[in-house]
Amino acid sequence: MIILIGGATHVGKTLLSQKLIEKFHYPCTSLDHLKMGFIRSGRTELTVKDDYKMRFWLWPFAAEMIKTAIENNQNMIMEGCYIPKQWKDSFSSEYLKEVRCVFIVMTEKYIRNHFQILYDYANVIENRLNDKLDIERLINCNLEFKEDCIANGTPFIEIDEDYNFEKILNQVIEIVKK
Q1: Rg (the chain; Cα; Å)
Q2: Which residues sit opposite 6 in a β-bridge?
Q3: Is residue 161 exposed (0-12), middle (13-18) or buried (19+ Cβ within 10 Å)?
Q4: Helix crossing, 51-71 with 31-41: angle to 10°?
């Protein structure tokens, strides 16, 4: 089985993936790591500031990694903000039987009420160098991901009142088991 965890920056994708690794013992691929590998190796002219373009440039590589894992009867977790809204178009129905995808989104209210906490916890799992978190961009990105999920029938978990990590983890596990 392939588990895709998507969503905007700072929603907890990496922490969630870490907990899924511990539960399922699947290997995990971070799309941020893949992105940095391409950037640092000079295989792309895109930079860390080209997030939107990177989503569409990087995804074909990620999709082929997913197909390879499925063809070899291997499990994998893949997480990152570079999963496009039309991710399903990369796979035939046979591949899609093996893929579970869920996005994590936060409401504007949650982001505005908890922005400092989001910023303070940004480095809990990974070291974010020069993290210039912008509240309006974060709000817009979360709204865009939610709208994309609704339009494309992709499951999502919306954080509105409080960030109950155990509840989110259990919801993801239920989606994955379907």
Answers
A1: 16
A2: 80, 103
A3: exposed
A4: 110
- Angle among Cα 44, 139, 172 to the nearest 5 degrees reads 80
Q: Which two tokens stand for residue 171?
A: 């919801």
Q: Which amino acid is at 89?
A: D
Read off the pTM.
0.91
How far is it, in rounded angstroms, from Cα 68 to Cα 55? 20
DSSP string, the chain: -EEEEEESTTSSHHHHHHHHHHHH---EEEHHHHHHHHHHHTS-S--TT-HHHHHHHHHHHHHHHHHHHHHTT--EEEEES---TTGGGGS-HHHHTTEEEEEEEE-HHHHHHHHHHHHHTTTSSS--TT----HHHHHHHHHHHHHHHHHHT--EEEE-S---HHHHHHHHHHHHH-
- The residue among 161, 73, 156, 72 whose CA lies nearest residue 109 is 161
73-114 pLDDT tens trace: 999 999 999 999 999 999 999 999 999 999 999 999 999 998
Category of 81 on φ-ψ map: left (φ > 0), alpha (ψ -120 to 50) or beta: alpha
Q: Which residues pair with 79 in a beta bridge?
A: 5, 30
